[in-house]
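Quick log. Single chain, no ligands specified.
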Amino acid sequence: MLGLLTLAVAACSSTSVVEAPKPVLPPLKIDQLESLATSAGLVWVVRARPRKVAETPFLIPSIGRIVPEKNFDAFRQRTGLDPRQLSEVLLLRYGDALLGAEAQIVRHNADPAQVERCFFQRLTKDAHRQEDRPDLVRVSGIIGQTSHAFARLGRDVAVYQQRGEPERGPARIASLSALGKLPKAKRLLDKGQLGALMARFGEAPIVGVALGPFDDEWKKAARGLLEIATGVGAAARPTARENIGFAFAIVAEFGDGAGKAGELLRAAWDDVAMSTMGHLLGVDRPIEPPIVATDTGVVTLAVEVEPGRLAEGLRALAENDLEAIMRLD
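-> predicted structure:
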């Protein structure tokens, strides 16, 4: 009898406990890349839509002159991404609040696991991987002598960070934002000057803005306008005449001096256009004279340039091709 009881107890103790299945999480979906970034401590931001540029027929030859196919192949080999297939990119630079961190937030159509592997393989030491959920993975470590961090968010978003702290920098902020854990954080394009300045350029495929006050290195730029500016922005877009249209805006409390500010902005453009660099890039020969306009607290300048010469100048600069630079006349 005792033997039978012993066997019964042993049988019961060997029975495995069936755990309840873990709930299936809905796929992580990110509608806007801007929702992943904070404006706190932001120095500047660039928003680009590379695929839109690469799919513009008249720009394809110019892109080929600036960046050879082998360079695209090398980038894809190193990162797992084809830059021409990125539908949207945010480039961000932060100040002391985030220890001078820089970040790139990209929306891609590549294999997210391969994109993560490519980043991991570039780390030279202190590699660390954290899986917050199957479709949200964070990786950090050192590349060379610089701290780097990476976040894979859902199927089509990746975040790259240089410098700063992995657990407090832009990559971590983006991860927490994707999970809805930072509801009170100051978003990138919340109502305010930054959002208004970005909105001024509409759907231009390349837009960059920076907020003042500007330090001594920049105060004298634009004929001294940046000394009083609270924000500056620039954009580039293809035009109906198959050229490149550039737009610039400077925001400040101009008061009655808006007209004078417009004159200074036009003079500053002329300074650039007539410089060696302006000649190289072909901006000294615009399709039409630049158009300057003033509005409440902002002055703007718009100009259209021919893409072929611009591409040749950029190619010569990228290759440090002195002979090509000297040939451009």
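The CA atoms of residues 7 and 13 lie 10 Å apart.
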